[in-house]
Specification:
about 260 residues, about 30% helix, disordered N terminus, 8 strands, alpha/beta, binds zinc ion, globular, Rossmann fold, single chain
Length: about 260
């Protein structure tokens, strides 16, 4: 169903022809009119999603993908769980303070759904690794705090021709940008110059979690072929005043990342 030479959605790997009785029971509440078809659920099962990082936004995003039945969830995050993470990193708890996040979070995800595979990468991928991961995934959920990482994941997604969902947060505001390479603005079109990075920005866990969950919803829609994804649009929810907004994003024909496709 590829509509573009670089696009690979829905997932490449054909899954089994039908859900098992246990799968049908497990996913019963998300199957039906207005949600997923059985074919859509099978597409999720055959899909691979990379989520990096898995803190305040990526954690709930990875959790929602795992619970929805995405067959292979790859999470990447370096470092150990520390006390200031506890206001938003829902895959961790006080029990794992001081422990490596990727390993602990992956173990927790496996307890939520043993019908899927969870891979843990205990660091943030560099350019080469991000590109290799993109080549074996169907979608990337970009949830890092730094623009350098976000733009790196964008380059990898565009090079591999897979969709990218970029989630960002600050304070009580969350934003989503959903990229379909070659058809919509990519992240580099939107941010031609890397904005300055604030190492320790304020954020409330409720907006992190909401933004991550919405990122997962976009991924579930794209991977399953359900609904209307936010392709080419920027969704902002200003939680401080309770105001959502959506704006169309324009491609930059001279974009060094996607201008040639
Ligand atoms: Zn671009």
């Amino acid at each position: 169903m590829s509509r573009h030479g670089h696009s690979r959605t829905p997932p490449r790997r054909p899954g089994p022809l039908q859900l098992s009785p246990a799968e049908r029971e497990r996913y019963d509440r998300q199957l039906g009119p207005g949600v997923l078809s059985e074919e859509g659920q099978l597409r999720l099962k055959g899909a691979s999603a990379l989520v990096t990082r898995v803190g305040g936004m990526g954690g709930p995003a990875a959790q929602m993908l795992a619970m929805a039945g995405v067959g292979n969830v790859i999470i990447a995050h370096g470092g150990e769980m520390i006390s200031p993470d506890l206001n938003r990193q829902v895959l961790g708890s006080e029990n794992v303070l001081g422990q490596p996040r990727a390993t602990e979070f992956a173990a927790y995800l496996r307890t939520m759904n043993r019908m899927i595979n969870v891979e843990a990468i205990d660091h943030e991928p560099d350019d080469a690794e991000a590109f290799e991961l993109a080549r074996r995934c169907d979608i990337i959920l970009s949830c890092p705090p730094t623009f350098a990482e976000r733009l790196r994941l964008n380059r990898s997604a565009v090079a591999a021709g897979i969709p990218l969902i970029d989630a960002a947060q600050w304070g009580m505001t969350g934003t989503l940008i959903v990229v379909r390479p070659g058809q919509t603005a990519c992240l580099q079109c939107v941010y031609p110059n890397e904005p300055p990075f604030e190492e320790l920005f304020p954020v409330v866990g409720a907006i992190s979690c909401a933004t991550g969950a919405l990122a997962a919803l976009e991924a579930i829609k794209i991977l399953s072929g359900t609904g209307k994804p936010l392709f080419g649009r920027l969704l902002t929810y200003d939680g401080f005043v309770g105001r959502p907004s959506v704006v169309e994003l324009k491609r930059n024909p001279n974009c060094p990342v996607c201008g040639h496709i």
